[in-house]
Design brief:
The protein has 183 residues and is mainly alpha-helical. The chain is built from 8 helices and no strands.
Length: 183
């Protein structure tokens, strides 16, 4: 198939030669333009993060909640809460959405570690950092994987206004969930 005529492309295909008319001199990248991310690596990553859907949040389990939310449930609602941030906000809404959906990714490997679990804050951070390195390795260190790691690190370090906002959302979402359990 020739990349010279965008009419020759199948639905969903992008050509690295296709011009984006809204931004002169830019090229629309192919979704397959990063040769370092293999389908096998992506599948391995997806299988790893599947654990987030099945792992119940430790704090709720320890407090006797029969049908406790999963880590993925929590991350999903944080993403929705970030989406509700007004676009006129001075903080970067898109960055907050992304950070919300990656902030607990390491827990797919280390589990939901709580302060009551007998693990120091330093040890928790080390385990989560190592888990993030493992997840990035699954994606062969691609640009997308590095973005995930950078977002996680920004959140962990509370390095920006966006990270501080998402940390507040993390606490707020827990309060909302507690109120729902009290119903």
């Amino acid at each position: 198939m020739s990349n010279s005529n965008s009419n020759d492309l199948a639905p969903g295909d992008f050509s690295t030669n296709q011009t984006d008319n809204s931004h002169p001199s830019t090229t629309v990248p192919s979704p397959h333009s990063n040769p370092s991310t293999s389908p096998a690596g992506i599948l391995k990553f997806l299988h790893a993060i599947e654990n987030l859907k099945r792992t119940k949040r430790t704090g709720w389990v320890e407090n006797g909640i029969a049908d406790a939310e999963s880590i993925a449930d929590h991350m999903h609602r944080m993403g929705i809460l970030s989406l509700l941030l007004p676009q006129s906000s001075p903080i970067d809404r898109t960055r907050c959405i992304k950070m919300s959906i990656v902030h607990d990714l390491a827990e797919c490997i280390v589990g939901d570690l709580t302060p009551h679990g007998g693990i120091s804050k330093a040890e928790k951070h080390k385990r989560e950092r190592d888990a993030m390195d493992e997840l990035v390795d699954m994606l062969q260190g691609s640009v997308e994987a590095e973005e995930i790691r950078d977002l996680w690190k920004e959140y962990e370090d509370a390095a920006t206004e966006e990270a501080l906002f998402v940390k507040d959302l993390d606490k707020f979402e827990m309060i909302v969930q507690a109120l729902e359990y009290e119903k």
